[in-house]
Amino acid sequence: MQFTAKDIAFMLNGTVEGDPLAAVSQLAKIEEAQNGSLSFLANPKYEQYLYTTNASIVIINNDQQLTGPVTASLIRVENAYSAFTLLLEQYNTLKLRKAGIEQPSFIHPSAQIGQDVYVGAFAYISQDVKMGNNCKVYPNCYIADNVTLGNNVTLFPGVTVYFDCVIGNNVIIHSGAIIGSDGFGFAPKTDGTFSKIPQIGNVIIEDDVEIGSNTTIDRATMGSTVIHKGTKLDNLVQIAHNVEIGENTVIAAQTGVAGSTKLENNVMLGGQVGIVGHISIAKGTQVQAQSGVSRPIKQEGQKWAGSPALPYGNNMRSNVVVSRLPELEKRVLELEKIITELRNR
Amino acid sequence: MQFTAKDIAFMLNGTVEGDPLAAVSQLAKIEEAQNGSLSFLANPKYEQYLYTTNASIVIINNDQQLTGPVTASLIRVENAYSAFTLLLEQYNTLKLRKAGIEQPSFIHPSAQIGQDVYVGAFAYISQDVKMGNNCKVYPNCYIADNVTLGNNVTLFPGVTVYFDCVIGNNVIIHSGAIIGSDGFGFAPKTDGTFSKIPQIGNVIIEDDVEIGSNTTIDRATMGSTVIHKGTKLDNLVQIAHNVEIGENTVIAAQTGVAGSTKLENNVMLGGQVGIVGHISIAKGTQVQAQSGVSRPIKQEGQKWAGSPALPYGNNMRSNVVVSRLPELEKRVLELEKIITELRNR
Amino acid sequence: MQFTAKDIAFMLNGTVEGDPLAAVSQLAKIEEAQNGSLSFLANPKYEQYLYTTNASIVIINNDQQLTGPVTASLIRVENAYSAFTLLLEQYNTLKLRKAGIEQPSFIHPSAQIGQDVYVGAFAYISQDVKMGNNCKVYPNCYIADNVTLGNNVTLFPGVTVYFDCVIGNNVIIHSGAIIGSDGFGFAPKTDGTFSKIPQIGNVIIEDDVEIGSNTTIDRATMGSTVIHKGTKLDNLVQIAHNVEIGENTVIAAQTGVAGSTKLENNVMLGGQVGIVGHISIAKGTQVQAQSGVSRPIKQEGQKWAGSPALPYGNNMRSNVVVSRLPELEKRVLELEKIITELRNR
């Protein structure tokens, strides 16, 4: 699809300077833009790019002064950053516009499907599923018996949701994520073998949650594993059974939270963090990448780092000393020699 | 589905106290149970919940004394815990009851399929596959050429098994797990590029193994990567080519075992552990979460922790000192000052 | 399939010693070979296995001397190792020979499909996809709108490629890998919630790249996440948005590279490594397993280890001291006592 400067100015309620028929088919950063791209300039720090960019169209603020010749067509608007973000969103919506029920797909007759949904080919919707309006279920997704999806839910290709799980409104789940597989629960027997503890709970994902690719969230043994409202999980994250993740929490890639642990609201976990089971993490806690938290965190809003995790500053100071430990050991050895010498005086 | 106290008492060979028509449709812990739930009390420590629970039915031991009024209907049995576990298993079996060959699925004419199997829509069963009785292959699974599945194998949706792999009896593999993808083997060439070393071995998974969601187990270069009997792998675990994992071993989420390493029986690895390649880990070894094992472990039944891993107690003691390293460094500096002073006396 | 010694000698331009009708159906290491297996002996160190092996056929060098009786049929060739590798490759090619368009699959009428491709059942090829010659798209793969695949691309079962991504020639992607899912980008709002930053860039994978099972590579916010030519990624690797990975780089399993980071050519990352975002890693850098790199690496060809990463030797020396920290602390305490004593003299 191509759009002209005139079209875009109309959409954004802006005014064109230069060729109104300049056409673009993609969006790019001003410093990377090629011919045929639309870009924007909002931060005066980057003004120089305005005179060197290969973009065909650049959106600028109404009050932007020009101090040299510009080859791109310009569109002046009240707020260039907001205008560009609006275009990004529209572009994305356009790219992801899918509709209708493709064939062959499998929809159990007992499933209740809302209005204006997309169900891709090879998607499987089981018995007693309830799906709200405007949902998109891409190809190769599997939605098991008795799962509930709210409105505006997007399941990208290859998502699996096990039975009885509940997914709220406006939830986005990326490809390969697994919701509701069995928690890792086995009881050791006297002969060294293990017997499986049935995992009959479910997973509840509240509104406005986004879940990354190949992330796994296990169902509760009994009760629910819960991801509260507004929380964002990155790729390859592991959430174990009976975990509860608070609202507006952000968890970066490859992090794992062990069974029955509870994160309060507004927590931020870096990548590759591990949190042990059966503890509680206070509101607003921030944990640095690769840290390991093995004890409850009770004080709110603190930063932690290291494995085992220490308060952020302490960890930084310890790390510095670790890097010069061999030297420190030598200093101690030196002291011991001198002391021996002094004692023998 | 709903069951009455009378029905359940009949199943468990128990006796009802209270309303025999009290009905339940789910199972829950006594402290979390809602109206319509069935729960149990086995541990006298939790007796107080018996008088406050919202459960509609509670299973209790024959010898349980009551010290207050109870609103739930009670079912008395010999062993409340065992009886409840039995119900959990029956509930789970009921939830996972699937049968028949759904359409469209792909079953190669040369495949040998046992009795009483479930093959979901969009499942793919290739040439020369042999599948035992009572297997369940959920939708979107792929079973490649010449794979063998024993009896009572469950592949949840979206499992992939590459060619020639062998899976024993009673194996459960959760969604998104990949069995038998190529080992990571590349020979460096003089120009800096790599040539792929063909990976023509397979993966053998013995009886009673359970494998978590999105776990990956690579095929051997030649020979077999083996997961021995009774072993349980959690989600997002990585098992590299030519690894051998002993019997009744438990590996928590996000742990990785590098190529050609051998774990003896009854090993326990915490989450996010890494084990280097080409080493052997003695029977009964336990490794704490986030540890890194870079050397063979020869002594049986020991606990290890840290990266690089140390004997558990040593690691704990070192960690304590790490947390006060800045202070230790200051003490050494102080000593150096005093010593200089003493020497100059 | 079975092959005789005579057949194989003909393929390899070798000569048979022993039974020309000895037949084999698999390839194995000489020390592990069973009856019916073909093996090879190239390294004189392993000569003793020649006299004890159960292999039915062994390939040896023309100049190999025999110092005892051999039960296997022998095939003499110029270079036994090269000859065996050739057979490995042919075996692998044979095992992976797939052709034609299976039904039901979904191919959008606008898709351009090259010659001699394989499209498995339940594979989905969207609008405006361009696919080169000799590609194999296994069952349950999803290729989104406007994706380009070069020639000789193999997508094993269950690979998902999001819209607009570009994949070069001779690329191999293993099962469950997700290419082009949204980068993890959210802007915090004043009320503590997050707004999603649209991720409208793509992923570019250049020629000769191999990507492991369940690995995730996120699309750029704008522009491209790029995996350059000849690079090999293991299983469960996370590559964040706007990352650029250089040529002939090797990344082991469960490693993560955070957003906008750039790896130069010929980098090697061990397993479970973490690299923070927005840094650059110099050419030829090697990072040990489980390390965490939080600062740019500017000097080429250096080895790093630890979390946070130090130069390899420094890390090794620090680790040694860490393991005896409790003892070091005692020595300092001892010194303090003596000093006090000396001062009071």
UniProtKB/TrEMBL annotation, chains A, B, C:
The active site is at H241. The keyword Glycosyltransferase does not apply. Pfam families: Hexapep, LpxD. Residues 24-89 form the UDP-3-O-[3-hydroxymyristoyl] glucosamine N-acyltransferase non-repeat region domain. It comes from the Bacteria. Catalyzes the N-acylation of UDP-3-O-acylglucosamine using 3-hydroxyacyl-ACP as the acyl donor. Is involved in the biosynthesis of lipid A, a phosphorylated glycolipid that anchors the lipopolysaccharide to the outer membrane of the cell. Homotrimer. Belongs to the transferase hexapeptide repeat family. LpxD subfamily. This is UDP-3-O-acylglucosamine N-acyltransferase. The lineage of its organism: Bacteria, Pseudomonadati, Bacteroidota, Sphingobacteriia, Sphingobacteriales. The gene is lpxD.
